[in-house]
Amino acid sequence: QKEVEQNSGPLSVPEGAIASLNCTYSDRGSQSFFWYRQYSGKSPELIMFIYSNGDKEDGRFTAQLNKASQYVSLLIRDSQPSDSATYLCAVRSTDKLIFGTGTRLQVFP
Amino acid sequence: DGGITQSPKYLFRKEGQNVTLSCEQNLNHDAMYWYRQDPGQGLRLIYYSQIVNDFQKGDIAEGYSVSREKKESFPLTVTSAQKNPTAFYLCASSRTVLDRDSYEQYFGPGTRLTVT
After folding, report:
1. Strand pairing partners for B43?
2. Which of A2, A22, A68, B107 has the fewest CB atoms found within 10 Å of its own CB?
3. Which site among B105, B106, B114 would you substitute to test the A interface, given the most A Cβ atoms closer than 10 Å to its Cβ?
4. Does any CB of chain B come closer than 8 Å to the CB of residue A40?
């Protein structure tokens, strides 16, 4: 079983819609969770992190964490074509991060 | 500007040659990391260092070596023992591994290595 799982996609949404990206993890003791955005050919860029159960909002982005279900998600409101990228979920395990393989998001005009 | 630099952006080598990838940060971060990314796969940790003169193997350390003589620098050597060295190599840093609230990792622009 993979430690951090994401649907590879692509997830296609129309411009202006809400994109919902999901991630599950296997280590019940994990405390820190991160979302990175990676454009094709570029390095990952940190966009959100969350440590507590519930929602955390930053602009058009909302991270949601449910530790009981071992589930973390990223919502992107008012999706734009510039949001088209691969989104990587990362979970802290002791002193390192474990990354999922990413979900490719396509936002079409 | 503070950040992480990696050089070169593209690197080509012949099989059997060792090659060293550079990573420098001026963020005053304690911890530094090297990852490898292959198409369709997530980031895999090669080596990481929490403090100067100390480093630990990650999940795929075989065929790689590192040094951490300065806080700002964490070079990675890809040796001829690495069987499939062609990949996108990413360096990252974080303030510390000791504090949960300081654990965000930030990435450099990456080096794309091609070995033929």
Report:
1. B37
2. A68
3. B105
4. no
State how far Cα A80 lies from the chain centre.
Answer: 16
Compute the distance between CA of residue B9 and CA of residue B112 in angstroms, rounded to an integer: 6
Residue A45 sits at φ, ψ, to 5 deg, of -125, 125
Write out pLDDT tens, residues A62-82: 999 999 999 999 999 999 999
Mean pLDDT, range A27-53, rounded to an integer: 93
What is the rounded CA–CA span in Å between residue A96 and residue B55? Answer: 12
Interface check A107 vs B, CB under 8 A: no
- The residue of chain A with its CA nearest to that of B58 is A96
CA dist A51 and A34 (Å) reads 9
Distance from the B15 Cα atom to the nearest Cα atom in chain A, whole angstroms: 24
Interface test with A, best of B30, B103, B111, B112 (most A CBs within 10 A): B103
Q: Which residue, A69, A82, A67, is CA-closest to A31?
A: A67
- Predicted pLDDT of residue B2: 67
Backbone angles phi, psi at B101, to 5 degrees: -80, 0
Coil, strand, or helix at residue A95? Answer: coil
Q: With beta carbons less than 8 A apart as the criterion, state whether B22 and B47 touch.
A: no
